[in-house]
Request: fold
Amino acid sequence: MSSRVDPRLTDYIARVPKVELHVHLEGGIRPETLFAIMRKNGLAGDARGPGDLAFLYRHTGLSDFLGHFKAAVTSLRSVDDIGRVARDLFRDLSRQNILYAEVIFSAPIFTRLGLPLAELLAAVAEAAGVVEEAASRAVR
Reply:
């Protein structure tokens, strides 16, 4: 039995409109973006590239996931970091032909780090606007 996926199915899945009913902004961080943000914020440690962060995207259980989530979230130190992650996520959703997404993020974590809630919300809204304009579709 072949494990290859029929290219027609792959094409169909790419084209069909989709919804995402529960997606965490922080969970959509691209490895390249996370590495760039970690470097900018002086948190990259021994990581030399996005590949060195691959372990953060493989989880063996809830405890493992929560540790990885914490490592990613605590790397985001500014409103600009949140805006960058939001732009990437909204672009990725658009490329996947996701027409509706309910995106949430851990605002209380960031406000405890001293980031103003109004600025966080504005950064996410601005990111949505950039993608809406580029992709001619609504982002909510």
The first strand starts at residue 18 and ends at 24. Helices lie at 7-15, 31-40, 62-73, 79-95, 107-112, 117-135.
